[in-house]
Amino acid sequence: MSRLHHSNVIRAFLLLCIVCTLLPALSQAAQVVKDQEGIPSPGSGEGLAVHQGKQGEILYLTLSAEGRPLSVVGTFRDRRIPFFIVREGEFAALLGIDMADEAEIGELTAKVSYVDNVQHRRFRIAVIPEHFREQSLTLPKEKVDPDAAALQRIALEQEKVKTIFAAFTPQRLWIQGFILPVEGMPTGAFGRKRILNGQPRNQHSGEDISAPLGTPVKATNTGIVKMVDDHFFSGLGVILDHGLGLYTMYFHLDSAKVKEGERVDRDQIIGTVGKSGRATGPHLHWGAWLNGSRVDPFSLTKLPIDSQTP
Length: 310
Hints:
The chain has 310 residues and is of the alpha+beta class.
């Protein structure tokens, strides 16, 4: 073997050793990027567009379906997502991304049911992580550590709210876009991780809007009043059912202007701003619950809805 050939063989061997040494490190680096991004790339050949939404947001999805389907119902992370007709051959759905949904790409499968057959549509959904701030508050001890009687009351109140959200109104009760319930200053409280008297608590599931005591509070859209009650934490509150699994909540009220079972119109005054319950000052806690997801109510006002035939 010539000296030149021998030298080339050694170089090739050394290069192979270097590549083999680097392969695990390169693989680990790719994994780190994936973890930092929080969203894995969609696999090749999927053939579907990826719809992105942050934790706590609402996505507006549409699909086309020929003829007259009996129903169009989607499923996302074991949650039922009903579609509603927008116009002939076009259906839409509001997909709520819960503020605690894991950041990853998943699928929503929609079942289009006819008298004689069933068709399926698929959507790729990318949940993007949202950075929620922290808030530390100092409150009276009894508001943070309730006694036995208060705990019993709280459990009954929570059970009542769960029962309301477990019900499902199959009709869409609104046809116009959603509006803000009160004129005031939003505090950016949705999803905020709260620390009360040094103790970590659940994330804040609604948005707080600061406004003077007695400021009128309006229904953000047409709906049915499902609850008017005074609760330990949320104070005097109203819950509206807008149909298709969508509810909005108005808490810490000073007064309520509606009764349970009443149908209210968009822009109708349903109460006034107060500081009832566990509140440090007058404000409205505005919340939204969409088919099992806790969503930022401000997402409702950003939906591409003007006036649609129900």
